[in-house]
Amino acid sequence: MRILKSLTVISISISFIITFLSPLKGSAKNNNTPAHWSLSGTLLAGQFAQSIRDIPNAATYLSSALKRAPNNKDILRRAFILNIMEGRIQKARALAARTLEASPKAQIANTVLLSVAAKEGRWGDLLARAKTLDPKGLLAFLLPPARGWAEFASGKKSAALMALEPLRENKTTVAMFALHTGLMLEHEGKLSEAESHLVKVFSGAGSGSYKIAKLLGVIYERQGRKDKALEIYNAFLAVRPSSNTLQKNIERIKTQKKPPVISTLPSDGIAEALFEIASMLYNQASMDTALLLGQLALYIKPNFPSALILVSDIMINEKRYASANQLLKKINQSSVFFKTAQLRVAGNLDDMGQFDTAIKKLEVLAKKNPTDYLSLFAIGDIFRRHKRWTDAINAYDRAFSVLGTPKKHHWRYLYTRAISLERAKIWPRAEIDFLKALELKPSQPDVLNYLGYSWIEKGKHLERALEMVKTAVKLRPNSGYIIDSLGWAYYQLEKYNRAIPELERAVELRSEDPIINDHLGDAYWKVGRKLEAKFQWNHALALNPEPDLKKILVQKLNNGLSDESKTVEVEEIGKQAN
Predict the structure, then answer these.
(1) What is the DSSP code string of 433-466?
(2) DSSP E strands, 197-341
(3) Domain end: 413, 442, 471, which one?
(4) pLDDT digit string (tens) for 290-334?
(5) Among 160, 124, 122, 125, which Cα is nearest to 144's?
(6) What is the residue range of 437's domain?
């Protein structure tokens, strides 16, 4: 589809823009003057900062370099993009104007200036700029809602709805069309018309959309059709059972409270459009482009919870935990995203080395709300990450006592408690949790893998266990860890020639994993390929294995494979699962 291809094209183009080209134009000459060295040093610092994903310093250094070389187009392009990614939109605004002097159709520069016009309510300027632009690439997604909300703000309601029509023409954007049309009609009190658009997409492309479910449900509430509203909310929960975002809506109906009027501001509508495009790109793993658009959404609407979550998630992926927490802390306690934000803040604190602070934060959250099992599960997860198995089990037990009977989407909690129980050598309870997790989620590959391998290691249910691991491989054919489990299961069953192809495939997929390389070495040794075995053990040793495995590898390299040098393999599966 043309519009979907546009997403890919714009994602690739931005990735190209922010990729380092070495050398930068104007940075290769060396005239040995102090001013030149200052420029060169600043450029190198900026390049290094970006190479390690230190976007704040990269933006600062490139902006400084641009002051020293104001006519360098390469530096201008990098400084411009990096400032947007860091959320410095006012700085980017000036750079956008300079970019357009050379390239009047530059999409990102025009997107920035469209966003600035929306923020400042300059709807005439926005429409004038939009008329000069081709609806291609990113602008194929952004121009229809941008024009629509600008017309809406100008009082031209029919023109606003017409501007959205291009979004209706494509399956990729039909839900976006319905949402923005519904928001405009709801604002005007035309609830039945809004409903007709939203209903068409809710059962299809929009069934998992919180925004569409919320808007349609509220419309039904305002019409007095509370049963229909509950039907919508429950249908959403059927698709996303772990979500608690509509729980307040359900409680409002049960307590007979009056529903709100949503009444979207035009600028918020454009922020919503930027967020939706960013989300699509995020789901395609186009993180840089998603970050850029997410920051523009936050520039227009600073306390936009969905965008704060999105941008912080991208920062977490880049290990920018402190920056992510600064955003997450902006989410108000009254927001349905508050709990999600707080759980992420605690996880980030742990990743920053603040283990005690993270645990204390979660304990405070749990204490405030006696029904809060999510904070207790999060405590268990942090203890599990630190291999404090008994503490993890205690936290999980507390969580299950609050939760009560687990539902289908709670399989993960049973699985993580089972891992902790198995690592704590409390196998009977671990086995019960693994089986219960499979009962709730019969084809879950991680559970099939872990339980199947554990049974093989213990010599129990061998035929069933091997089939479970094979099923896990079919479900995750590119998972090096799961393929390693199948190969090692064959090894445990002394089917070495069947083990080797699986282990070789696992090494191809996870060449950096010392455990998988160790397994392949053992299998080679068993079939007499001793030189290859020692090569794999040497390679595993070079990959910085944990102390226990390192000791075993040294023994194998000195003495070959013996019963004494066998690894405790189930524990290794546990390490991979963690």
Answers:
(1) HHHHHHHHSTT-HHHHHHHHHHHHHHT-SHHHHH
(2) none
(3) 442
(4) 999 999 999 999 999 999 999 999 999 999 999 999 999 999 999
(5) 160
(6) 369-442
